[in-house]
Amino acid sequence: MTPVTTGSEKSLRELFVEAATEAIEDAGVDKLDSMYVGNMMSGYLQQQEHLGALMATAIGRESIPSYKVEDACASGGVVTNAGVKAVLSGMEEVVLVGAVEKLSGYTTPEVTSGLMMAEDRNKVATTGISFVGLNALIARRYMHQYKVTSEDLAEFPVLCHENALVNPRVQFHKKITVDDVLRSPLVADPLRLLDCSAIGDGSAALILAPSDIAKKFADSPVEIEASAVATDRLSLYQRPDVTVFEASRKAAAQAYSAASVKPDDIDVLELHDAFSALGIMALEDLGFERKGSRARLVKEGVCSREGRLPTNTFGGLKAGGHPVGASGVYQIAELALQLSSRADKCQVPDAEIGLAQSIGGIGTTVAVHVLRRGN
Amino acid sequence: MTPVTTGSEKSLRELFVEAATEAIEDAGVDKLDSMYVGNMMSGYLQQQEHLGALMATAIGRESIPSYKVEDACASGGVVTNAGVKAVLSGMEEVVLVGAVEKLSGYTTPEVTSGLMMAEDRNKVATTGISFVGLNALIARRYMHQYKVTSEDLAEFPVLCHENALVNPRVQFHKKITVDDVLRSPLVADPLRLLDCSAIGDGSAALILAPSDIAKKFADSPVEIEASAVATDRLSLYQRPDVTVFEASRKAAAQAYSAASVKPDDIDVLELHDAFSALGIMALEDLGFERKGSRARLVKEGVCSREGRLPTNTFGGLKAGGHPVGASGVYQIAELALQLSSRADKCQVPDAEIGLAQSIGGIGTTVAVHVLRRGN
Asked: Considering just the CA atoms, what is the radius of gyration of chain A in Å?
């Protein structure tokens, strides 16, 4: 994982090379059979496509199969799913999954406009609403329907900023309080500045392989037990209840089933908290607590690094950073470090099973991965 | 396959829905396990990403895994490769592979600029050269090195226009001669207007499934015997010899090996003739004749519909049409029709084995598929 930064001087290509090179060296693999590149914005912002061959060339692997997978903010989760399928297909063994996004260096209108590519630009962007605005609508309805307060939502960014303090790769090293969140400027009512993840640049990469091959490179490689993707209707206006992300529920149900685990078995958790309400809602949609629990698990310390269900140990999208199409790979890389006891100061004790949730659009596409400590 | 048109009144979404719906109805499947959307330009031209969920919603399948695969002009070939891996992974059985591109409705500078996203915009587009210009450099060097003439190159578009005459889905119904090609306006020396495929809109879709599942829906479903992807250095200036597409050779070698066939076994062929020289070069790079054969197979009628190796029976990218990210799926759909004796007036007799070659960038990424008549 490259550090997530605001205004990286590195190009999209340089960021990817840094992460991919680190992953290849860390895994100790020499030959790659293929690679998959996760990214959302390159066509719109960098006006560059064909990232598959571009990145393969950039890392000196200019002959292997390589292509781009795009799925808005879930591109990182979904490119991992593509890598898993490649390995399971038997067509490829040692596979690089890398994702990258560079959002800085562009104007706020450019990036704001680009983020609306995750929703329906033809039918929805024309109303003038922004991507933050859509998430604000969800948060407002959720607060109304379940009597959730702004204080409740603020618990999630406070947790993430606390976790990020000890992580050298995060975007923000800054302890914040619930009061700080409530006093921060309003972005889109009810979401305030500290409810929202920021624009970030970064790249993360993984090496995937069948278990028997992976064991040649690591004593106890982390196992991917489940990789599930589900979708919902693209647009908010098409859904009967915007306070539930059906795609989260479906992807989670499939992942729990494939991994033969239940929410109680999860020891470490990475949630897609692009906005504070999404983190709280995810705890519910993924089955960790009842709908409308008002951030109880966070308030009671269950989600803290020392708690029973350490959550967003990397710092989450809020404090760790949200390089949009790459965030899903950051989450899985963080779980891999946790489950192999290599997370340094972020390390939680005795984690056996981890879960990562990556969201594309406004809860539209959700990728859920379950990972298990190697044995 | 939707008809390929210049200036379709249908949107990107409507084109995809038309092709996907036709594929689903034609195959007679009700339940889809997942879908994959091939496309190159939507972020740049339509300023729309998240096509996975967008298209799943548009065809009323808004819960299944669905994501976009991008690989420049090879997006169609490569999204098929993604679909094949999904089926082979065992995670999904009935899979929709659809690809779509809409290039009309934009200015020539916009589309010309967009096509350079297939090469390296940072380092190459800044020289002022266009995508056609890069292909002209290749053609010029190829002509010089192998004593190939403009007359030789012109044989390929003449063949494609001849084939297209009986196909209702093509962009151009117009018989042309070698003289017509040579007298058409110069676009980028040595390429003339009739050496070049045109800007087109279209969408094509396939239904993939394991053989045993497919047999529930069709008496003798066409088999995909090989799906291979290879890459080369992204940019022309990085290659030792621009007259050979190493990615074509590698992908073809892998595909021949996986399918246990050799060039002589191929009965029907779809080549990526975005420019006339590419069609001629492909016959060589894929092993059908020696380098520098000056279009011998075309001149001798071997590649004609009545010949031993009917080539571009759909009409090719030149006359059939080149909706960039979709063309690779058109090729495979055409082979599927040929190999199931459903190609109507385009039908060639007794074809058992077909091969499709899809190119991304300037020979940078190549996907080769080998299909076999079901039994």
From this structure: 19
